[in-house]
Design goal:
It is globular and about 60 Å long. The protein has helices at 30-33, 38-41, 49-63, 90-94, 96-103, 147-153, 166-179, 198-211, 217-228, and strands at 21-26, 69-75, 132-136, 158-164, 183-192, 213-215. It is built from nine helices and six strands; from the N terminus they run βαααβααβαβαβαβα.
Length: 230
């Protein structure tokens, strides 16, 4: 057991000051959540996405008043795709939206392009005044963005991760956070994988064993409520 105000997590509880923690909401965009979005058009299973939205909503309800910095990561591209890397970039060839827009001409300009419905953060989790929104054009939230400077300026040491997809953009950002000396914590039931459920288990194993900690939404909300008590 940790201190009375510790966050219950695996492999061990974490003593975290809410003022030095950030809730990282990864790519909770129409593309990954709703019918007609990029994941759905690609044949990905989005059955669990609405549950992830509801779970993140419950965390947000206590995170903002509890003193956590709320940071949204939002993946996408300029309409001219100048930030996609171009044909010489592996991102151009592997990132799903870019591939679909090349393979299906009717989707050109519609998937994860700035200003489109697909790119927008889901209405249920819309950012509020005081939240930070960081656009990105690669899987990791640290790649080519000001995320690191935003965190260091605010004295943040611990990152509580939610969002989609666990095994792609969440895990990529978790690994980069670890390499930059942050303490990553993944909220297992506030994330969802791209691909089979085995990918969720694999990422959570990697995080718990090698890169950080794993917790649940109930434990996060309980920790914040306990930390707020006088």
């Amino acid at each position: 057991m940790g201190a009375p105000d510790s966050l219950i997590a695996r492999p061990q509880p974490l003593a975290i000051e809410p003022a030095r923690a950030a809730l990282i909401i990864v790519d909770m965009q129409n593309a990954f959540v709703h019918k007609g979005g990029m994941f759905d058009l690609a044949g990905m299973d989005i059955a669990g996405a609405q549950g992830v939205v509801r779970t993140i909503r419950t965390i947000l309800d206590v995170a903002r008043p509890g003193g956590l910095t709320v940071i949204y990561l939002q993946i996408g591209y300029r309409p001219d795709l100048a930030d996609s890397g171009g044909p010489a970039s592996p991102n151009w060839h592997k990132e799903l939206a870019l591939r679909l827009m090349r393979e299906r001409p009717e989707l050109a300009g519609r998937l994860l392009v700035h200003g489109t419905w697909d790119f927008a953060i889901v209405e249920e989790l819309a950012p509020r005044d005081g939240d930070v929104v960081i656009p990105k054009s690669r899987y990791s939230g640290f790649a080519g963005t000001p995320l690191d400077s935003v965190l260091r300026t605010r004295g943040i040491t611990h990152l509580v991760f939610t969002g989609i997809a666990t095994n792609v953009c969440v895990e990529s950002t978790v690994r980069d956070a670890f390499f930059r000396e942050y303490w990553p914590v993944v909220v297992a039931d506030a994330t969802m994988p791209a691909g089979p459920e085995s990918q969720q288990a694999a990422t959570l194993f990697n995080v718990e064993t090698f890169f950080g900690s794993v917790t649940t939404a109930a434990d996060v909300t309980d920790w914040l409520r306990r930390a707020a008590r006088p």
